[in-house]
Amino acid sequence: MISLDESVTLDEDELEFMPIRAQGAGGQNVNKVSSAIHLRFDVAASSLPAFYKERLLQYRDQRISKDGVIVIKAQRHRTQELNREDAIARLVELIQTATRVDKPRRPTRPTRSSQRRRVDGKTQRGAIKALRGKVDY
């Protein structure tokens, strides 16, 4: 069981792991050993609460396909076990960021003194730039 929250858990049976060969340099070992992991997680068929499913399917991320399947490729480590743990950690992080509810922004107005400081800075900058012109003797 993978804990997402104090009340929400995810069963490891819902995750599909596929060992694949890692990309990049690695010598002879990279061509023989399938140390990278493809993690596939079907959001719609999972046991997550409806709120989590809805937020995940609306979340804009390239790792979430149009069918609602999350695909994570983990190949940072040299062993399959570490890559598997890394993929699970990245899935948990993705789910937590997608379901985080931000507090609504209250619109604010700049103070009059801050507006005056901004305009004064702009006029000073303009004066400095005006002095860069050609000099007539």
Description:
- With 137 residues, this protein is an alpha+beta fold.
- It has helices at residues 29-32, 50-58, 80-99, 112-130, and strands at 2-3, 9-10, 15-20, 36-42, 69-74.
- It is built from four helices and five strands, in the order βββαβαβαα.
- The strands form two sheets. It has a three-stranded antiparallel beta sheet with strand order 3-4-5, covered by helices on one side. It has a two-stranded antiparallel sheet with strand order 1-2.
- β1 (2-3) and β2 (9-10) form a beta hairpin.
- It is elongated.
- The mean pLDDT is 82.
Keywords for this entry:
single chain, 137 residues, alpha+beta, Double Stranded RNA Binding Domain, three-stranded antiparallel β-sheet, two-stranded antiparallel ribbon, 17% strand
Task: Record the SSE blueprint.
Layout: E1 2-3, E2 9-10, E3 15-20, H1 29-32, E4 36-42, H2 50-58, E5 69-74, H3 80-99, H4 112-130
Antiparallel strand pairs: 1-2, 3-4, 4-5
